[in-house]
Amino acid sequence: MNKQESGIPPYRRGIYKSMYAGKLWTMRQYSGFSSPEITNKRFKKLLESGQTGISVAFDLPTQLGLDSDDELSLGEVGKVGVAIDTIHDMRKLFDSIELEKISTSMTINAPATTLLAMYVAIADERGIDRKDISGTVQNDILKEYMARGLYIFPPDSSMKLTTDLISWCSSNLPKWNTMSVSGYHLREAGCNAEQEIALSISNGLYYIRETIKSGLEIDDFAPRISFFFACHNNILEEISKFRAARELWYELINEEFNINNPKSAQLRFHTQTSGVTLTAQQPMNNSIRVAFQALSAILGGTQSLHTNSYDEAIGLPSEDAVKIALRTQQILAEESGIVEYQDPLGGSYVVESMTNDLITKSRNIIDEIDSNGGALKCMKMGLQQKMIHDSAWKQMRNFEEGRDRIVGVNIHNDDNNEHIEGQILDPSDTLSKIKDLEYIKSKRNNKKVDVSLENLRKYCKNNENIMEPLIDALKSEATVGEVNQIFKEEFGTWEAPSGV
Length: 500
Prior knowledge:
Layout: E1 26-31, H1 36-48, E2 53-57, H2 60-63, H3 87-93, E3 103-107, H4 112-125, E4 134-137, H5 142-148, H6 155-172, E5 176-177, E6 179-182, H7 184-189, H8 193-213, H9 218-221, E7 225-231, H10 235-256, E8 269-273, H11 285-299, E9 304-306, H12 319-334, H13 349-371, H14 375-381, H15 383-400, H16 427-443, H17 446-461, H18 467-475, H19 480-491
Helix pairs in contact: 1-3, 4-18, 8-10, 8-13, 10-11, 10-13, 11-12, 17-18, 17-19
């Protein structure tokens, strides 16, 4: 096999022959805060500024399947993302945005089925053919147990919801990416580059095995699995990381599965510049960090990219900071000249050597996980969690002892730090959101809601695919909290081992 060309297996140099000379990466800024109405305004401004895809951030209650008026949601409604309770919120979130013309990414995991079902419900209302809507839902529950903690249900029940979504989309939403396997959150939690590759690919392989057990063939769904990686500060290592991940995925898929569609072995990925590398001290320095992280992602062959805002270490990004982050991508696309070449660093001794080294190290980790029973069994033992904690501790010691230097923090940390005011949320927005929800609950047809929820429960008890009854329940004005309460009652809850 020729490793010297883009678009040729094992795809070290990119999955498309012409790469960005033929089509630019998708510029997708992650956004969501406060209310659906306010987030909708931000989406529209980003689209007007040249963004080519929408990426939705949900608040913590929504990510945990809770309604805004739940006592556990107190203090968190609309804080780190947009609060979504009912189909009315989804309508407001995408008001006057043409779903059939844009690609929507939703960073949602435990209640991924719920939020995708709600998105499909509003597409149905608008008369849009389900086959015409495109986007991605993260739907990666394993990394929640390992690194992020926003899970709800026991692992086996969560895997059932995951495969339900994948199976249903294979027949109903052919343009939808049914999973974005996330190395990003693993890396932000503390793992290193080879662990980011290994743990995310190991998770991806496990999802494929489980989905095949549910009755699908690999070519039915694998072309719609994508990955999501972080991009940190070591430029050459990050470029090599993306190349290594592509090649390793190709090799492992072909070793284990019989594929007929080449896309089943092509690792497509979204990149986000690293939030954990941003500093509250001298925050304008973050613009520089973001710029070269974005450059690394592009030179590594990403399919879509989010660039963080310089003020994100302080709070939610301000509108001006978000625009600068988007302009960073546009300058790289329009002014740098790098898009004219498929793989400008292909053949570099350093990059090729690093790529080979990362493949070897990552494969050793994957083999260790497989030899211990696979990703899910190892997670239940805390194996991956321990890897992440040990790596994070090592990084912290390196920083505290001065081996790793961060400009403005432990080096060049003069007293003249610029002051930047983070975006301030209006607390009345939360109160208004809760009042809206209470009003909807008082005015809807509660008998119809109850019937739809009991139908959903029946599908859970019978171990049937829950997507269609879930869509029906949300159309009846059932809330995110109500449908996920049905799942809790039928599936239970769980607490993952820490690995410490």
